[in-house]
Fold this protein.
Amino acid sequence: MTEQARILVIDDEESIRKSLAAVLEEKGYLVDTAENGKEAIEKSKTRPYNLALVDIRLPDMDGVQLLTAIKETIPKTIKIIITGYPSLENAIEAVNKGADAYIIKPFDMNKLIDMIKEHLKKQQEARKYSEKKVAEFIETRARELEKQP
C-alpha cells in the first residue's frame, strides 16, 4: 500500500478502542477513535477514513443508524460492524444500511486484520480502476477535441 490507510474505531468501551487502536497502529495504519456516534460523525466531517469499525450498540445511537450518517459524510469508507449482540435481524439490517462486513465480539484479532486487509485491497483496486478509466476518458476526449476544426 503506497499510502497509510486511515481507520476510525467507534466503540463505547475504552478498552476495545485502545486495544484495537494499538494493534492497528502496530500494523501500520493511522487510527482515530470515537466513543459515540456524534463524535464519529464530527470526525468523519473533518477527515476521510478508508475504513470504520462500528460497534452496533453506542450510547447515543444505534451503530446501524451511524452507518447511514457515515455514508453521507464519507461515502467510499468501508464499514465493518462489530457486535457483542449478534442476531440475524441486525446483521441483515446492517448490510442493508451499507455495512461491508459484520464481525462478532469477542473476535479473533488475526481474522479481523485479514478482513481489514482484504477490504482495503479491494478499495485500492477500485480506486486504481477508477483513475484508469478517468485517464482513458480524458485521453479520448483530448484526441476528439484535437480532430475538431
Q: What stands out?
A: The chain has a mean pLDDT of 88. Residues 109-147 form the longest helix (39 residues). The helical segments are 14-26, 37-46, 63-73, 88-96, 109-147.
